[in-house]
């Protein structure tokens, strides 16, 4: 896609309606591993790895529109509008995709993503030079979730790590491109949400350190279409790792035409 190969992992019957799953920053398709077996019984599931992550190619620069265009290209290739499900940064990408490519997104589900608006450029910590380690085990010991929270079960943690490491002549290193953590324009989320008319389900974790506390009133004020908000008790930002069965079940919650439902995330 525009010079970059985008990795897509799929499960389920392609004849069924499609869910496009979009991971967060520095993540990969394995973040959805706990949910996919549950979702694939009723849906065709396609897990995109955004450029700069997983097995997708790296780019010289990144922005929200590029990532949203990657999501749109996958849907277009599948041949029918889809439900787009995003977590964290992937939730923002999903919102941009729904606003920019409305004919391709029939429904939107967003997990724990509605950050504080920041005028100008979105600034992340300065990317670090790529580091190499003598063994996979040495690299794996450094794996942490951001924002910080307890790692999931060892089997799932192993999947997350395996999907994001590679052995090179210089040693073991992360697949992700740290340059994707750079500076790019704020997505103006409030404006984009006002442009979305497809049904939208906002799912928040109770104890997220990532979410701004004013998300609920902003969604209520700016939503351009039907929406519902749900909070998952006892969870943190990476709720799709903590409670995959609950999160999978929540995908069935969809607002009807003209429906709004608020709540305090």
CATH superfamily: Alpha/Beta hydrolase fold, catalytic domain
Total of DSSP H or I helical runs spanning 4+ residues: 9
What's the helical proportion of residues?
A: 25-40%
Helix- and strand-based class? alpha/beta
For the sheet with most strands, the description reads:
8 strands, mixed
Q: The CATH topology, please?
A: Rossmann fold
Q: Strands of the largest sheet, in order across it?
A: 1-3-2-4-5-10-11-12
Q: Kindly give the count of domains.
A: 1
**Named CATH architecture:** 3-Layer(aba) Sandwich
Shape: globular
For the secondary structure, the number of strands is 12
Return the average pLDDT rounded to an integer: 89
- The first-to-last residue Cα distance is 36 Å
**Rg value:** 18 Å
Order of helices and strands: EEHEHEHEEHHEEEHEHEHHE
State which percent range the strand residues make up: 15-25%
| CATH hierarchy, class | Alpha Beta
Describe the structure.
By secondary structure, the protein is of the alpha/beta class. It has a single domain (7-119, 185-261), classed as Rossmann fold. Helix content is 27%, strand content 21%. It has helices at 36-39, 64-78, 89-100, 136-140, 154-162, 189-195, 215-222, 239-242, 244-250; strands spanning 7-11, 18-22, 44-49, 82-87, 105-111, 121-122, 165-168, 171-174, 184-185, 200-205, 227-232, 260-261. Strands 1-3-2-4-5-10-11-12 form an 8-stranded mixed beta sheet, sandwiched between helices. A two-stranded antiparallel ribbon has the order 6-9. A hairpin with a 2-residue loop joins β7 (165-168) and β8 (171-174). α2 crosses α3. It is globular and about 55 Å long. It starts with 6 loop residues before the first strand and ends with a strand. It holds the Pfam family Abhydrolase_1.
